[in-house]
Write a structure and sequence with these properties.
7 helices; 3 domains; 6-stranded mixed beta sheet; 22 strands; alpha/beta; binds zinc ion; 3-stranded antiparallel beta sheet
Length: 397
């Protein structure tokens, strides 16, 4: 396909300051089976273009990426490498990382021949297509007042500042396929405040294929999208988001949500009423790391979001990272689900054996007002593991 899906691209007219040239630094990360997972290529100014930039202009790194930013980025890659089992053949996925200015971070996604992301294809053993600037995707790190302290794996933020590792976990999730394949019409760019005429690409990716509109109807290739800021002509068969109640649904997500909601909420508009472009490319579960909400207090994706990664085709032993989650509200529950280490095949728990996943979590209570009696053991001893967590009650707005 000839379109590029670009997520939160940040453009700046810039003059290179011309610091001394350095070689691009390369770091390799393997998955838990030892299969090559991802190669990170770190660009500084003077290392040449690392990506596509805006329009046809190459995008250069605007500043040197300090070692602590590299370390946090690698922590995020290792986080995903622990979760996803590579389907061998096309890996590692190669990602260029550069430094930019401004209060932001960005993931620039390249589409593979079948419409998914190139990074996703490389990890699923599918043809990712050609490299762009030597990579399958690009992540740009801005200046968001990040803490430069060493990354400490934890279920809760460990610093009052913004943690770079969680931000990079978010940006890499876009590279991994959490992004819609929407074309925004010829009259305006996705970043223009003017009315837009969005529609799904003819070749939609797995994330988009799982999206449902306000009326519960599944997305179809080429379909026009209606929303409060969309200006599409009348059509019989549209993806209707005028009430902005779209959601991602799939077998694994349904299993996790257990009827608490029809799927993971996705949105066209932000909380404060602005266009949230690219549309329906984030998970708007409350305060989620994968959301675009102003306040996000999770440090990694929650179980429903990892289930979405399974639904889009990744091989993940979800029970190695989550014992059980409760998304409903006001329930009286007895939880007999344990949390232990997994067997070698990842098919069952090993009773009375501690789970060592870095961010393993025995029980996550997302919903509010529940009374839960925990009747099974939750044995977690990963570096940032926990027996249970209830973010909704503990923090909230
Ligand atoms: Zn994002």
């Amino acid at each position: 396909m000839n379109t590029k899906t670009i997520t939160i691209i940040v453009l700046a007219a810039q003059t290179l300051l011309g610091p001394p040239s350095r070689a691009v630094e390369t770091y390799d990360v393997r998955d838990s089976n030892g299969v090559p997972f991802m190669r990170a290529r770190i660009f500084g100014p003077g290392d040449g273009p690392s990506c596509c930039g805006g329009g046809d202009k190459p995008n250069h790194s605007l500043r040197i990426v300090p070692q602590w930013e590299i370390d946090h980025s690698l922590a995020a890659i290792r986080h995903w490498a622990e979760i996803i089992k590579v389907m061998p053949g096309q890996s590692p996925a190669i990602v260029n990382i550069g430094g930019i200015r401004g209060n932001t971070a960005a993931s620039i996604i390249q589409a593979s021949p079948d419409g998914g992301t190139k990074v996703e294809a490389a990890l699923k053993g599918q043809d990712p297509g050609e490299l762009d600037y030597g990579a399958h995707g690009m992540v740009a790190i801005g200046e968001m007042g990040f803490s430069s302290d060493a990354y400490i794996p934890s279920q809760l933020p460990m610093t009052p500042k913004i943690g770079l590792a969680p931000v990079m976990i978010h940006e890499f999730a876009h590279q991994l396929g959490i992004a819609s394949t929407i074309i925004y019409g010829s009259e305006a760019t996705p970043f223009s405040p003017r009315a837009i005429s969005p529609y799904f690409a003819e070749s939609i990716n797995a994330w988009t294929d799982h999206l449902h509109d306000d009326n519960g109807n599944q997305a179809k290739p080429g379909q026009a999208i209606y929303c409060t800021v969309c200006a599409n002509p009348r059509a019989d068969d549209v993806f209707d988001l005028r009430r902005d109640q779209g959601y991602f649904a799939g077998k694994n997500v349904s299993e996790v949500l257990a009827g608490a909601m029809p799927g993971i909420p996705v949105r066209v508009m932000t909380e404060d009423g602005r266009q949230d472009v690219p549309f329906v490319s984030h998970s708007e579960l409350k305060n989620s790391l994968m959301s675009h909400q102003g306040y996000r207090n999770y440090t990694s994706l929650m179980e429903a979001e990892i289930a979405a990664m399974q639904d889009i085709g990744y091989s993940i032993d979800r029970r190695n990272f989550f014992g059980y989650s409760i998304y409903g509200n006001g329930q009286n529950l007895v939880n007999d689900n344990p949390f232990f280490a997994r067997n070698a095949n990842g098919t069952a728990y090993l009773p009375n054996t501690y789970n060592t996943a870095t961010l393993g979590l025995g029980l996550h209570v997302y919903g509010s007002g529940n009374t839960v009696i925990q009747r099974a053991d939750l044995l977690s001893q990963g570096a940032g593991g926990a027996a249970s967590a209830s973010m909704a009650k503990a923090i909230g707005y």
